[in-house]
């Protein structure tokens, strides 16, 4: 009698083990590269049958004076925002007292100095070219060399921003990359595009233009500019687009560096669950405070992702609420520069906005969205990416062959531990932690991001 | 022998686990007692000790200065740079830009040029304000007509609106309740307040004003007006506030009627999942299955439509600043709900709002939010109701003896079955399924709602009526 039960038990355990192992192998196995049309047309119907214009033209970002005048008038209207609740800082969102200060500065100081700001935005060379039917804007910053010193090796670098950012985030970062320093044997030729639908890059008028399709456009941009092999750096959507690019086009990517490394494969999800329960198995104890448990993670997602929820489902509604609405746009966008720089800033009546940024910096960024009317098209990246059609491409299960570097600035919203990154980044040569900084390190701590990036490049031994 | 011990241990482990699970389960689903609740919290500005209560009732008449209307027309006359919808897209991604442009033009050229007429319509129902717990509360108060009062039983009824609605939703419903109808032996003294933070009622000035506090203020309003016992009717937030009122103050509520019967207790959720496997067993007819099931589909639909809920429940001041700075923005955000909360709207019909509600009506409602600048304070209610303070009250688990009536309109947000409702409302006297209609029932089909409400009232047998 006992014999039968033993056989039953052993047999059952063996079966479970076999199923578990097969699943484990499946989860670990790299996925199949999806079939994407590298020449898919995303432009307006009027250009569909026209031959793609491959010319690269300098682009004038000057803003028509009537737009500035109209903006001044709008900002001069009485502010109708409700008083904040007693004792509340930024816990209910953007505090209207701080908003009043921002609006006043914008109108009386920033716009009075607009010519200077516009000149500043033009400090890099701006260009546009047509890729797959879309006008793509980019900054092209060539490296300098020091006279009398041995020239540094030049590597091309594709630098990508996210939402609600713009190329403006990189204005202090780019000079560090293009200027020789003793921190690196390399200097970089930087291509910093506006993502399609953001800033001065045209958005698609077709559905289906999600993160993988954007990666194809960005890669084609680099090819257009004569760069067959290049480095990729990004955060936020820049990180995701870069990750897609590196997964889909291993032949083009020398190295991938991100300040928001993510891995959305099933295996990573399982590891995250386990890491939540048994953190010491997955995380170096000296950095355990970077890695939240799942409960905290879900709490953060619920608290901070309302914008993503509405943008992924109703981009036209929320977009139309913010276009032509400078005060609303400032409130909506700048809330992120407060909370995502440091969630502790939610407790502050001024959201800690000026702890790490100046009003000029922040308003430069808002102005780019405002003068280009790109808020709605920027949100469509959410609605076209966060859907089963995009996720079924399963780019997440394609490992990135190139050397990869991940860096964690402590106040970033969430961090994925190295153990949960390895199946996506099998060549992860660099995984660092910084006890300062948040979601926008290029904007907030450009020197630290630069030093981290060149440290990665060194380890990548290109 | 060793194997028997091992086997015995495994069984014991499962039994212990099962036992523990049972204890956890029963703890999670058992009804809870009515919580202690302060029915006199001061919610006005400043310190309570400096507050001098004013119990007088003041008449209210809407009288918007022409300059405000002119300014709004000017704002609506700006050249809009709205982004075109994606190819082939109507309302699948939110409120369609072309539709919005048409609305804005109508609003500016046709509606606002007739503003005096609209204002007269607003004032056609008698309105007042009075201070409750430090907050100035605006409300419509229409008594049953003389003819009706002479022939019928008259009872007070508290009508509660929701978001993005207002008292405007009740303008066709109220005359049905107060006038001499041949349908029912009942007529009503109607009190329809603007919720705190909505319309012309003051907002709270400190955190914590949730749906239980709202129910308290509304109940105190009725007491102020001399109504110690009254009916409550509501949809959307009005339904939840009414449910709280019936739970916290059962001695004041004669009957509670809802057109959005939701319940989110753990037991209700578990029952919902269970019933999804045997839907016909728990419904009066298989024709009503798609009101509730499939659960997965309903959940995905809700996920798609609840972005506004998520952002208002976490960052109400951010979105509020956007909506109060731009009438076009406000229109886009609110009109989306009037579009999707209708059956033709869900079929991407561009004429849905016009056909189902009428342009003037929807713009009247939009004007309430615009004129009172209440988008922010209205949004804050969402945050207060997802906060731990409110969730800890666990009011969905507290039973109430108050008789309940439930009307389910086909295209509204999903409701729960009677099987689930009875755990909170053991005195569920009336339950009806409608194969048409949607979220704004009082606005879309006031006669049906009136009919259903009076059937519910009759079923209470307050005057010896036989059970129908």
Automatic annotation (TrEMBL), chain A:
Gene Ontology CC annotations of this record: endoplasmic reticulum membrane
Substrates-to-products reaction catalysed: 1-(4-methoxyphenyl)-N-methyl-N-[(3-methyloxetan-3-yl)methyl]methanamine + H2O = 2-{[(4-methoxybenzyl)(methyl)amino]methyl}-2-methylpropane-1,3-diol; cis-stilbene oxide + H2O = (1R,2R)-hydrobenzoin
Enzyme Commission code(s) on record: 3.3.2.9
Molecular function via GO: cis-stilbene-oxide hydrolase activity
Location(s), subcellular: Endoplasmic reticulum membrane; Microsome membrane
Active-site residues, record numbering mapped to chain: 236 (nucleophile), 382 (proton donor), 439 (proton acceptor)
Family label: Belongs to the peptidase S33 family.
Protein name listed in UniProt: Epoxide hydrolase
Organism: Drosophila ananassae
UniProt lineage: Eukaryota, Metazoa, Ecdysozoa, Arthropoda, Hexapoda
Gene: Dana\GF13743
UniProtKB/TrEMBL annotation, chain B:
Taxonomic classification: Eukaryota, Metazoa, Ecdysozoa, Arthropoda, Hexapoda
Keyword Cell membrane: no
Chain segments annotated as transmembrane: none
Gene Ontology CC annotations of this record: endoplasmic reticulum membrane
Functional description taken from the UniProt entry: Catalyzes juvenile hormone hydrolysis.
SUPFAM superfamilies in alphabetical order: alpha/beta-Hydrolases
Gene from which the chain derives: Dana\GF13741
Entry annotation: catalytic residues: 236 (nucleophile), 382 (proton donor), 439 (proton acceptor)
Source organism per UniProt: Drosophila ananassae (Fruit fly)
Protein name (Swiss-Prot/TrEMBL): Epoxide hydrolase
Topology in membrane: Single-pass membrane protein
Entry keywords, A to Z: Aromatic hydrocarbons catabolism, Endoplasmic reticulum, Hydrolase, Membrane
Superkingdom assignment: Eukaryota
A GO BP entry: epoxide metabolic process
Domain Epoxide hydrolase N-terminal: 58-170
Main location: endoplasmic reticulum
Catalysed reactions listed for this entry: cis-stilbene oxide + H2O = (1R,2R)-hydrobenzoin; 1-(4-methoxyphenyl)-N-methyl-N-[(3-methyloxetan-3-yl)methyl]methanamine + H2O = 2-{[(4-methoxybenzyl)(methyl)amino]methyl}-2-methylpropane-1,3-diol
Family: Belongs to the peptidase S33 family.
Subcellular localization, as worded in the UniProt entry: Endoplasmic reticulum membrane; Microsome membrane
InterPro entries in the record: AB_hydrolase_fold, Epox_hydrolase-like, Epoxide_hydro_N, Epoxide_hydrolase
């Amino acid at each position: 009698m006992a014999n039968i039960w033993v056989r039953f038990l052993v047999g059952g355990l063996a079966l479970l083990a076999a199923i578990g192992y097969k699943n484990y192998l499946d989860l670990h196995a790299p996925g199949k590269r999806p079939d994407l049309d590298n020449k898919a047309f995303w432009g307006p119907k009027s250009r569909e049958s026209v031959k793609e214009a491959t010319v690269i033209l300098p682009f004038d970002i000057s803003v028509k004076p009537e737009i500035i005048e109209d903006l001044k008038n709008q900002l001069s209207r009485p502010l109708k925002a409700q008083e904040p609740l007693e004792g509340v800082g930024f816990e209910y969102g953007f505090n209207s007292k701080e908003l009043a200060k921002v609006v006043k500065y914008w109108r009386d100081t920033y716009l009075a100095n607009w010519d200077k700001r516009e000149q500043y935005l033009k400090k890099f060379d701006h260009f546009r070219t047509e890729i797959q039917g879309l006008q793509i804007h980019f900054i092209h910053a060539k490296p300098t060399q020091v006279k009398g010193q041995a020239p540094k090796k030049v590597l091309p670098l594709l630098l990508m921003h996210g939402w609600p950012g713009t190329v403006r985030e990189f204005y202090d970062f780019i000079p560090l990359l293009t200027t020789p320093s003793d921190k690196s044997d390399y200097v970089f030729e930087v291509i910093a595009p506006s993502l399609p639908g953001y800033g001065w890059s045209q958005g698609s008028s077709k559905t289906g233009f999600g993160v993988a399709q954007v990666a194809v456009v960005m890669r084609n941009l680099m090819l257009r500019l004569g760069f067959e092999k290049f480095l990729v750096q990004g955060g936020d959507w820049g990180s995701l687009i870069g990750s897609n690019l590196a997964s889909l086009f291993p032949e083009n990517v020398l190295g991938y560096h991100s300040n928001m490394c993510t891995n959305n494969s099933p295996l990573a999800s399982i590891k995250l669950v386990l890491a939540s329960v048994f953190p010491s198995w997955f995380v170096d104890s000296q950095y355990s405070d970077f890695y939240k448990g799942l409960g905290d993670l879900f709490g953060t997602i619920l608290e901070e992702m309302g914008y993503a929820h509405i943008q992924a489902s109703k981009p036209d509604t929320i977009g139309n609420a913010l276009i032509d609405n400078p005060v609303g746009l400032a409130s909506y966008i700048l809330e992120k520069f407060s909370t995502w720089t440091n969630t502790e800033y939610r407790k502050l009546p001024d959201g800690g906005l000026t702890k790490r940024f100046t009003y000029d910096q922040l308003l430069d960024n808002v102005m780019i969205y405002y003068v280009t009317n790109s808020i709605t098209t920027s949100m469509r990246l959410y609605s076209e990416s966060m859907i089963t059609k995009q996720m079924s491409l399963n780019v997440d299960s394609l490992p990135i062959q190139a050397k990869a570097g991940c860096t964690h600035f402590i106040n970033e919203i969430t961090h994925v531990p190295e153990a949960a990154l390895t199946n996506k980044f099998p060549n992860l040569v660099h995984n660092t932690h910084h006890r300062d900084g948040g979601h926008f390190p290029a904007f907030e701590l450009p020197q630290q991001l630069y030093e981290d990036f060149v440290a990665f490049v060194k380890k990548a031994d290109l | 022998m060793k194997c028997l011990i091992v086997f015995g241990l495994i069984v014991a482990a499962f039994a212990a686990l099962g036992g523990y699970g049972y204890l956890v389960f029963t703890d999670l689903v058992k009804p809870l007692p009515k919580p202690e609740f302060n029915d006199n919290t001061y919610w006005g500005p400043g310190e309570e000790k400096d507050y001098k209560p004013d119990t007088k009732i003041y008449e209210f008449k809407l009288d918007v200065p022409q300059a405000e209307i002119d300014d709004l027309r000017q704002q609506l006359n700006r050249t809009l740079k709205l982004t075109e919808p994606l190819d082939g897209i109507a309302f699948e991604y939110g409120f369609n830009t072309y539709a919005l442009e048409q609305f804005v033009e109508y609003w500016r050229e046709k509606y606002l040029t007739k503003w005096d007429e609209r204002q007269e319509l607003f004032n056609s129902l008698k309105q007042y304000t009075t201070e409750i717990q430090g907050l100035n509360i605006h409300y419509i108060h229409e008594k049953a007509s003389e003819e009706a009062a002479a022939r019928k039983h008259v009872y007070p009824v508290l009508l509660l609106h929701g978001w993005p609605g207002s008292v405007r939703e009740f303008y066709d419903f109220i005359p049905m309740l107060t006038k001499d109808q041949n349908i029912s032996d009942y007529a009503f003294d109607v009190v329809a307040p603007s919720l705190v933070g909505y319309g012309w009622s003051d907002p709270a000035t400190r955190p914590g004003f949730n749906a239980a506090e709202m129910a308290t203020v509304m109940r105190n309003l009725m007491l102020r007006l001399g109504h110690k016992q009254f009916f409550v009717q509501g949809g959307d937030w009005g339904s939840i506030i009414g449910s709280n009122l019936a739970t916290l103050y059962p001695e004041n509520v004669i009957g509670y009627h809802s057109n959005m019967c939701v319940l989110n207790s753990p037991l209700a959720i578990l029952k919902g999942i269970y019933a999804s496997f045997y839907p016909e067993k728990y419904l009066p007819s298989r024709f009503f299955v798609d009101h509730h099931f499939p659960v997965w589909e309903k959940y995905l639909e809700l996920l798609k439509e609840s972005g506004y809920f998520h952002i208002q429940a976490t960052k109400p001041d951010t979105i509020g600043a956007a909506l109060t700075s731009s009438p076009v923005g406000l229109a886009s955000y609110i009109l989306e709900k009037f579009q999707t909360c209708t059956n033709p709207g869900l079929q991407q019909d561009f004429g849905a709002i016009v056909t189902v509600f009428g342009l003037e009506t929807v713009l009247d409602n939009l004007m309430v939010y615009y004129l009172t600048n209440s988008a922010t304070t209205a949004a804050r209610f969402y945050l207060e109701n997802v906060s731990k303070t409110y969730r800890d009250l666990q009011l969905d688990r507290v039973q109430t003896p108050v008789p309940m009536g439930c009307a389910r309109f086909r295209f509204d947000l999903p409701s729960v079955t009677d099987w689930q409702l009875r755990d909170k409302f053991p005195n569920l006297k009336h339950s009806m399924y409608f194969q048409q209609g949607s979220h704004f029932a009082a606005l879309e089909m006031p006669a049906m709602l009136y009919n259903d409400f009076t059937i519910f009232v009759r079923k209470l047998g307050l005057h010896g009526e036989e059970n129908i």
